[in-house]
Design a protein that fits this description.
The protein is mainly alpha-helical and 125 residues long. It folds into two domains: 36 residues, no CATH class; 68 residues, no CATH class. Helix 3 runs parallel beside helix 5 and helix 4 runs antiparallel to helix 5. The chain is elongated, with a radius of gyration of 20 Å.
């Protein structure tokens, strides 16, 4: 029995295929996914890193990335980047910007937990 390939190895194989084989692989993956029970993964809790009294926006982004290391969504980082720009270019209040950034990361974390909680466990809440 061969070993299970990593996602990188699978991506490399996929990238080497022509469009017809890519479509076949995608169809087969959809089929396998539909046949299986949903897989959930345990999302670790955020790392408790206290917010300093005087914090810069850049420092807040670093802290939040460490606190919510499991959140990898580019949309969160894009929104945080926009908030940083509002602070630097438009002079928006640092505390207000950091508060919004924290809310972005909390929402992204909550969504990640929700997406990875089995449906049976959700109905018990």
């Amino acid at each position: 029995m061969s070993k299970i390939k990593s996602s990188t190895e699978l991506t490399d194989l996929y990238e080497a295929m022509d469009d017809q084989r890519k479509q076949s692989l995608s169809d087969f993956a959809d089929f396998l996914y539909a046949q299986a029970d949903p897989v959930s993964r345990e999302i670790p809790p955020p790392v408790e890193i206290p917010r300093p009294q005087k914090e810069t926006v850049v420092g807040a982004i670093k802290r939040l990335k460490e606190t919510y290391h499991m959140v990898g969504s580019m949309s969160v980082f894009s929104a945080a980047s926009s908030l940083m720009t509002e602070h630097m270019v438009k002079g928006r209040d640092v505390v207000e910007v950091i508060d919004e950034m924290e809310a972005l990361f909390i929402d992204a974390y909550d969504k990640l937990v929700q997406e990875n909680t089995p449906e049976e466990a959700r109905s018990e809440e």
